[in-house]
Amino acid sequence: MKKLGALLLAVFMVFTLVACNSTQGESSSQAKTTSQSATDETKEQAKSDSAGNGKVLVVYFSATGSTEKVAKAIAEASDATLFEIEPKEPYTSDDLNYNDDNSRVSREHNNPDLQNVELTSTSVPNWDSYDTVFVGYPIWWGDAAWPVSSFVKANNFDGKTVIPFCTSASSDIGDSGKNLADLAKTGDWQTGRRFSSSADTSEVKAWVTEFGL
Ligand SMILES: Cc1cc2nc3c(=O)[nH]c(=O)nc-3n(C[C@H](O)[C@H](O)[C@H](O)COP(=O)(O)O)c2cc1C
Questions:
Q1: Which of 121, 122, 91 has its CA nearest to residue 108?
Q2: What is the pLDDT of residues 195-205, one digit of tens each?
Q3: Residue 201 contacts residue 186 (beta carbons within 8 Å)
Q4: Residue 70: CB within 6 Å of ligand 1?
Q5: pTM
Q6: C-alpha angle 125/126/127, rounded to 5°?
């Protein structure tokens, strides 16, 4: 009789343990589902925050982040969508060493045939919906960095106001915007503006308000 009691107790304990574990499993998987959906919501929110109003687009190429910072400030000030121009083969710091005659940029600079840099994508979703397109780039040897040329040649800017902007160590925007307009052949290209590599975002935002977007 004692043995039967002990056996029943053991069965009860095993049952309790299993039941307990399965409840824990359920609640932890429930917690996972809840936190997963919270992450998805945050991602969706971030997506719609960067989606903009569908009228203004900021397209930019940035090798070391300076132009990107300006592009983001413009997008924030004009409720714009951002589109980054990305070479299929990104530029490393060795690639960008213009003091080395053999670096990638030096070779590309010396041979215009090499400047048709392949991009990961040249098509912007909902391209037709944008009235105003800011086009940003770093100045390379006094002109627009050539990955931007590949983008500009691949798109039709008909019916769009195009505003170039650039960052540089010291050079002005010069003819870089006009040269891109010549490549694009379409669009109403404005004079645009140069910012210093270390431009203050408030200076950028003040400039954007001039367009009344
Ligand atoms: C290959 C190369 C050429 C450059 N040529 C010039 C130039 O002619 N004039 C100038 O003021 N800055 C020049 N710079 C400096 C960049 O324009 C400047 O650092 C820019 O803000 C970089 O932008 P990013 O960080 O968006 O790539 C050059 C930089 C590189 C890598």
A1: 91
A2: 999 999 999 99
A3: no
A4: no
A5: 0.80
A6: 90
129: which residues sit within 8 A by CB, 6+ positions away? 54, 55
Dihedrals phi, psi of 56, to nearest 5 degrees:
-120, 135
Inter-residue contact 75 to 52 (CB < 8 Å): yes
pLDDT above 90 covers what percent of the chain? 75
Measured in residues, the chain has a length of: 213
* CA nearest ligand 1 atom 9, residue: 171
Tokens of 113: 């045939």
What does the angle CA 165 – CA 86 – CA 209 come to, to the nearest 5 degrees? Answer: 25
Domain range 52-209, CATH class: alpha beta
The answer to whether the CB of 90 is under 6 A from ligand 1 is no
Q: Rounded to an integer, what distance in angstroms lies between the CA atom of residue 126 and that of residue 104?
A: 34
CA–CA dist 195, 66 (Å, integer): 9
Q: Is the CB of 139 under 6 A from ligand 1?
A: yes
